[in-house]
Design a protein that fits this description.
mainly alpha; 2 domains
């Protein structure tokens, strides 16, 4: 996490009890309950996902805010900004295939592969989309 974001989080977390009483904040508690009920699925074989249904302390709220900020900032950037490396070259991960998959082993020729890949136009649309999704815009906040 960038130092300025981390220090801002720590400053805010240390002042939370000054700004409001989180135990009586109905909007905050309703938001946490909504995240508990609808935001995290319970996986097969588990009885609980581990996310609390309410906030009971400043430390718990600080921990939850830290998870949310990390997920929305650092993890999002790590997952999304590297997509061009994979999807920028259509044979690596084509957005569509124009032929059905082969039904017999060892029967695929280079011609079969080439007719299955997207056309130049389709590949161009995919590359342009991935480019737009992964580029850093000049007006974005720079945390470095």
């Amino acid at each position: 996490m960038p130092p300025t974001l981390f220090s801002s989080l720590l400053f805010f977390a240390n002042k939370l009890d000054v700004f409001f009483n989180h135990l009586q904040d109905t909007e905050l508690q309703a938001w946490i309950l909504d995240l508990h009920d609808n935001g995290y699925p319970v996986r097969e074989g588990e009885t609980d996902h581990g996310f609390p249904s309410s906030v009971a302390s400043i430390e718990q709220l600080t921990h939850l805010l830290n998870i949310i900020i990390f997920t929305c900032a650092c993890q999002h950037a790590a997952v999304n900004f590297s997509q061009m490396d994979t999807f920028g070259f259509p044979p690596n991960s084509p957005a569509l295939m124009r032929q059905p998959p082969p039904t017999k082993k060892d029967s695929v020729t280079m011609k079969d592969v080439m007719t299955s890949l997207p056309s130049k136009h389709q590949a161009g649309v995919t590359i342009a989309t991935v480019y737009d999704l992964t580029r850093i815009f000049p007006d974005e906040v720079n945390w470095t």
